Amino acid sequence: MIVNKSDIASDNQKSLQDHQDKFDFLSNSLAKSEINVDDLVNKLADFQVAIPSWALGAGGTRFGRFSYGGEPGTLEQKMDDVGVIHSLTQTAGAISLHIPWDIPTDYEAIKQKAAQHDLNFDAVNSNTFQDQKDAKESYRNGSLSNTSDAAREQAVQHNIDVIEIGEKLGSKSLTVWLADGINFPGQGNFQSALQHTEDSLKKIYNSMPEDWSLFIEYKPYEPNFYSTVIQDWGTSFMLANACGDRAYTLVDLGHHLPNTNIEQIVATLMLKGKLGGFHFNDSKYGDDDLTVGSIKPYALFLIFNELVQGMQHNPQNPYPAWMIDASHNIKDPLEDLIQSLEAIQEAYAKAMLIDQNKLMEAQAANDVTLCQEIIQSAYRTDVRPILEKARLERGGALSPIKAYRNLKVRETLIKERGLHSVASGL
Ligand code: LRH
Ligand code: MN
């Protein structure tokens, strides 16, 4: 299914005037605070978030999976679905592949498909948390940290294979997330597990092309429930420093113990030039992989406040990689991803309304109330007309969810693929 610009334009017609009225009102009120709204629109339009190839079908939990109908059964169909999301939102210009769930069979065809949908290949993800059927060694007791030399070598080689796949597609980064850990006290030796992991990551890092980056993703628990080798940002930061200048920490918002101050972690990593990127999602309890901004939108805003400040004041940190990492147990995966993109753009736009210099002055003066007033007035501003303008200017939908439904995308996908097609991934 292709959603073309003329379909979107005709669907926008009925709400164009209402959008323009709201946009003009917002521009005038922001102009009073010397905020150039066109600048915000351009920054948003350039802001592209990668869609995870493993989150285009109905996910599921160990308690069950509810198929959604019309799911993409091939990598080509997954890219078509990312193409639909990008056509409507104009902010999903990249896909992040997970190997071996999405090994391309025909690289030229896949690259043509990407060009057709104006998509780039963001980070490729390795998978040493599942055993492949023809694998010689098992990852039951870990991969890069495994006590078995053979198992570690197999896991390192897998990451090298993933880099080669990424190179053929034009990707420039590898994300490593390890499930490695233990379930019981005494089951393993913390120090040898960490040392094995560091030595293995160095082998992977040294096999990367000169212009590639390594993203090391941390997680406190699951699937191991007593200890995880790369459990927190500090461990990932330490390993990234041990690897080299092009190794960074990747922050998955769901990978924090309750009430962790993630915005402080972001500020710290940017100051040290080690923030590689994000896996955006939201959560109430654990790694719930829920729609971005659906549970803690203010926390997401505070994270973007640190990002905007860091992008203005930390040239030592590279431009972060923006990716979503969610799974959809009960919602239409494409609608869920569209809502997540909206929440990310909204948090970014609100954070860009903060006068960072005024805020730093108030912080230096310890004027606590003024600090709060500066950030909260930005948060309380309805920035949606700016998001609409950014989409409209690139041929996207004023309201992507409404357009998705008006254009009967899911119904068409079910007609094309049937009710029982299943997407590989989570
Ligand atoms: C681990 C994780 C990781 C992916 C997986 C699909 O929880 O966040 O980023 O490899 O989800
Ligand atoms: Mn993740």
TrEMBL record:
Keyword terms: Isomerase, Manganese, Metal-binding
SUPFAM superfamilies hit by this protein: Xylose isomerase-like
Keyword Manganese recorded: yes
Highest taxon listed in the record's lineage: Bacteria
Presence of keyword Isomerase: yes
Region (Disordered): 132-151
Residues making up the signal peptide according to the UniProt record: none
Compositionally biased intervals (Polar residues): 140-149
Protein's name in the database: TIM barrel protein
Record organism: Maribacter flavus
